[in-house]
Amino acid sequence: TCATGDQQTTALVHLKEPEATIVEMLKDVTSYEGEDAVFECRLSRETSQDAQWFLGDVPLQSNEMNEIRVQGTRHSLILRKVTLEDCESISFKVGQHTSTA
């Protein structure tokens, strides 16, 4: 706001968060049945953008079979005690960017 005498003008500041990109892509993982499989990728920056993991076309959430972690720019997925049914593509999506292994 700027005020001089009986006149005043006001403006607003609008901020947009820069888009995060995937700078370290997912890598294929080979594991034995019953072991854990760990997938990791790294973003260009910490972000509040929605990030999502997928097994095939199914969105994943943290539960007793899947652990999703975020540590700064590093995002990781741990599939607990994998089975043959888990042999599908794993994808990580943030904004318009996707990495698949």
Question: Keyphrases for this structure?
Answer:
Ig_I-set, single chain, mainly beta, 101 residues, 4-stranded antiparallel sheet, Ig-like_dom_sf
Helix count, per DSSP?
A: 0
Counting helices, strands and paired strands, the structural category is mainly beta
Query: Under the CATH scheme, which architecture would be assigned?
Result: Sandwich
Topology order in helix (H) and strand (E) letters = EEEEEEEEEE
The largest beta-sheet arranges its strands as 3-4-8-7
N-to-C terminal Cα separation, in Å? 52 Å
**Which regions contain 5 or more consecutive residues with pLDDT less than 50?**
none
User: What's the CATH H-level superfamily name?
Assistant: Immunoglobulins
At the fold tier of CATH, the topology name is Immunoglobulin-like
Please state the average pLDDT score.
91
Number of DSSP-assigned strands: 10
Largest sheet: 4 strands, antiparallel
Q: How would the global form be characterised?
A: rod-shaped
Strand content: 35-45%
Instruction: Give the domain tally.
Output: 1
Helix content: under 10%
Description:
By secondary structure, this protein is mostly beta strands. It has no helices and ten strands. The strands form three sheets. Strands 3-4-8-7 form a four-stranded antiparallel sheet, with no helix packed on it. Strands 6-5-9-10 form a four-stranded antiparallel sheet, with no helix packed on it. A two-stranded antiparallel sheet has the order 1-2. The N and C termini lie far apart (52 Å).
